[in-house]
């Protein structure tokens, strides 16, 4: 497996181009079905079509489903969020505390990533 790159590989470019063409082809078929009368479509041999009700109902159902999906996502995030008085909102098992005395960082370099203890944050913020 090579290095990950944001530029498309030839396979991804081909899939994207086919999806691009397929989208415009499907949109064109939708507009033909929605705009032309059924008699004209029957005269050119297209006889198996959904009801005209779905010309407007389909996109409306998709829009409403999208709104409900967004609302469900927000509600689900509210249900899995910890309450403000939980100790897990302050720290967890993945916290990395580094002692200031053991850090030997060369001059001009970036120190390693770590969590700041809550007592140190309170000292800086409230100067007690």
UniProtKB/TrEMBL annotation:
Transmembrane domains' residue ranges: 12-33, 53-76
Described purpose of this protein according to its UniProt entry: Part of the complex catalyzing the transfer of N-acetylglucosamine from UDP-N-acetylglucosamine to phosphatidylinositol, the first step of GPI biosynthesis.
Name of the molecule in the record: Phosphatidylinositol N-acetylglucosaminyltransferase subunit P
Protein keywords: GPI-anchor biosynthesis, Membrane, Transferase, Transmembrane, Transmembrane helix
GO BP: GPI anchor biosynthetic process
Localization terms from the record: Membrane
A cellular-component GO term for this protein: endoplasmic reticulum
Primary localization class, coarse: membrane
């Amino acid at each position: 497996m090579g290095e990950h790159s944001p530029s498309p590989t030839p396979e991804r470019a081909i899939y994207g181009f086919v999806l691009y063409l397929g989208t415009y082809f499907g949109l064109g078929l939708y507009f033909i079905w929605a705009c032309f009368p059924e008699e004209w479509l029957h005269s050119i041999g297209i006889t198996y079509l959904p009801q005209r009700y779905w010309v407007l109902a389909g996109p409306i159902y998709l829009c409403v489903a999208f709104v409900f999906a967004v609302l469900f996502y927000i509600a689900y995030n509210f249900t899995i969020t910890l309450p403000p008085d939980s100790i897990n909102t302050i720290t967890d098992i993945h916290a990395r505390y580094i002692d200031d005395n053991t850090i030997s960082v060369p001059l001009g370099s970036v120190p390693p990533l770590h969590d700041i203890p809550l007592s140190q944050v309170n000292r800086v913020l409230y100067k007690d």
